Amino acid sequence: MAVSTVRRRRLGGVLRKLREERKLTAETVAEATGMSQPKLTRIETAHTAAKIEDVIKLLDYYECEDEDFRAGLIAITKDGSKRGWWLSYRDVINATANDLILLEADASTYKTYEPAFIPGLLQTPEYARIVIDRLRIRSGGTVEDLVQVRMARQSILTRPDPVQLWAVIHEAALCSNANRPDIMVPQLERLLTFSRLSNVNIQVMPIGAAVHPGMSGAFALMGFPQRHDLDVVLAEGLLSSLWVEDPADVELYRAKFQEITAEALSVDSSLDFITAQRDKIK
Q1: 146/67 same-domain check
Q2: How far from 80 is each of 2, 3, 84, 226, 235, CA to CA, in Å?
Q3: Positive or negative, the Cα torsion across 193, 205, 143, 121?
């Protein structure tokens, strides 16, 4: 599996910005670093993967001394050499899922709003099977393949250094499929189980809530430990999904997520709601 194209674009964009801020031409930088100008351009435009030594050479030339910033860019560069469970499914998942899995593996925080479904990171296999079967349009794998991928993704919540998940789920997602207690009771219990983890916060957006930014659709904001300006957002759609990479736009999503959490029920009230809904349909 190749490096995440999203992070490759972020890397190229940051390197290009560093060069332009110093009012340097690609030709000047190439000559000074011993890199060919076409290669530098391909790295900046994400048409080729950068090598770690190339990135270090460029950062040194640009006199970037921020260690966290340097570590963040080098971490992105290392993505290409990663190996993990997802390699077994490289013929099953599409490009967006490919990027998502690699980004999740690196993320330190994950903030998501979901208006219609339980978020994938919190789904049971049975619930996931129904959602995937009803919604999938194009895929190289079977429903069971995709369920296995979704379950494997959840390991980021229980790994030694787990991702900090903050999920806001609309009440409608919790009340759907009420005629299938065999599916929804275990799913609601799964939410309660995950909520006991110190790295997981779950809130419920009530149906009677005021107009809020989440009404524009589902999204997930992934944060990385080095710098906020390397964070990305996935805005999901039925036929296609949009990666939001511009730092200013990501910051807008971050602010809007805060508005969403403020409009939702508190964490404690949300767990009470989930418990009551589970008991209601048992």
Answers
A1: no
A2: 6, 4, 12, 18, 24
A3: negative
Residue-wise pLDDT for 11-57, tens only, equals: 888 899 899 999 999 999 999 999 999 999 999 988 888 889 999 99
* pLDDT band for position 1 (cuts 50, 70, 90): very low
pLDDT, tens digit, 9 for 90 and up, residues 196-255: 999 999 999 999 999 999 998 999 999 987 667 779 999 987 666 889 988 899 999 999
The CATH number of residue 232's host domain is: 3.30.870
Q: Measured between alpha carbons, how far is 272 from 26 in angstroms, rounded to an integer?
A: 58
Domain of residue 224 covers: 85-281
> What are 176-192's pLDDT values in tens digits?
888 899 999 999 999 99
User: Do both 52 and 125 map to the same domain?
Assistant: no
Same domain, yes or no, for 72 and 97?
Answer: no
Amino acid of residue 263: E
* Residues 142, 277 within the same domain: yes
Q: Check if the beta carbon of residue 273 is closer than 8 Å to that of residue 256.
A: no
Position 20, amino acid: E
pTM beyond 0.85: the answer is: no
**SS3 sequence of 139-202:** CCCCHHHHHHHHHHHHHHHCCCCCCEEEEEEEHHHHHCCCCCHHHHHHHHHHHHHHHCCCCEEE
Q: How many separate domains does the chain show?
A: 2
pLDDT at 88: 73
* Amino acid at site 173: A
User: For residue 18, what is the domain's CATH number?
Assistant: 1.10.260.40
Last residue of a domain, one of 39, 55, 81: 81
**Size of the chain, expressed as the number of residues it contains:** 282
